[in-house]
Amino acid sequence: MAGAELIGKEEIKEVMDVLETGILMRYNFDKERNGVFKVREFEEAFAKYCGASYALGVTSGSSALKVALTALDVGPGDEVLVPAFTFLATYEAVMEVGAIPVMVDIDETLNLDPKEIEKKKTQYTKAVIPVHMCGSAANIDKIMEVARKNKLLVLEDNAQGCGASFQGKKLGSFGDMGIFSFDYVKTLTTGEGGMIITNNLDLYHRAEWYHDHGHDHNPKVGRGLEGRTILGFNYRMNELQGALGLAQLRKLDYIVAEQQKNKKIIKDALAQVQGMGFRHLPDPAGDSATFLAFNLPDEDKAQRFQNMLSAEGVDTVCYKRNAWHYVPNWEHFLARSTANSKKYPFTDPTYKGKVQYLRESIPQAEDILGRTLVMGLSVKMSPEKLNQIKKGIEQAAKNM
Q1: Residues 267, 292: contact at Cβ < 8 Å?
Q2: CB of 6 closer than 8 Å to CB of 255
Q3: Active site residue 126
Q4: Domains in the chain: ranges and CATH
Q5: Running DSSP on this structure, what letter comes out for residue 72?
Q6: What span, in angstroms and rounded, lies between the C-alpha atoms of 218 and 226?
Q7: Across the chain, how many H-helices and E-strands are there?
Q8: pLDDT in tens, 62-110
Q9: Helix (H, G, I), strand (E, B), or coil: what is residue 30?
Q10: Which residues, listed in sequence order, are joined to residue 298 by a DSSP beta bridge?
Q11: Which of 120, 121, 186, 320 is catalytic?
Q12: CA 302: distance to chain centroid?
């Protein structure tokens, strides 16, 4: 559970700073808050950590996607390339802004295959969303190269990879914008909450204005009297979330380091199993080590190995059979049952393209995910727990 495992006196202290002022809202009440601006401080610290110019705290990783897509001016009539393996929110956010998500195959990183971009793009494609699933990078350098060649916007979905990097550069900072999720099971948690980062001031302003009803946050005038150039909505992060984020951010490098240690122990044990392979990591040193993904030669062997591990008390997930993270398993999405009874945006007359979501169009995902098992890792894993996992692996291997 990553950051949630380490909630302690540091988080309590930051939260108490807020409660003592009585001001829980991110904006206004400057005199009453006695200089306490936790969301602002968290944003500044997070931007610095990621090597980005600007950061904006929002209510969730899902809303971060929607706010960023809105800032990028993605909307009705547009297509967005999205990997077949991701959390449902990535697709939902594209539809929330009125655009159409196009399902794209993955490669052995378990992330979007750069070669798929030119295969799947059409005249209506405006952006691509590489998702750094399970804590490790996509081939982001190649994705950026192909996207720039084809004049596509890039929004990095780094909801599961906070703290991870590629060649020394933090994930989320490669694209035009990047987003993060801080829900309760993420590497860094504020309970709920999310963050958007960018190096583009215009995009930052559009995101900032949109996430707070269009207010331009001019410090020279009172709230509600600022100028407004666009309409927006409410996706503001509150001060309690900002306080938690500040404390958690200081622990992030420690969290990643501990998970890397635990991952190595388990990976070394798995490496002894005949026929075992591992997910390709473009930059192993930059892995956040929140998950360990390993694979067997075929789907049947993977299923049997998973059953044997389960019998030994070792839990894994096969994402090809997962209901939340693999497009072919989303029955409501495939039925185009959006929240709108008219099935918008699929029925939007401004969209002139054609889109299908067929398993046949993602052969690599069907193969790789079917024979891949994923184990969630924790920060705190006792020697006893690690030994139990190692023994479970050994026993399962004997019975293969």
Answers
A1: yes
A2: yes
A3: no
A4: 2-252 (3.40.640.10), 253-398 (3.90.1150.10)
A5: T
A6: 6
A7: 13, 12
A8: 999 999 999 999 999 999 999 999 999 999 999 999 999 999 999 999 9
A9: coil
A10: none
A11: 186
A12: 26
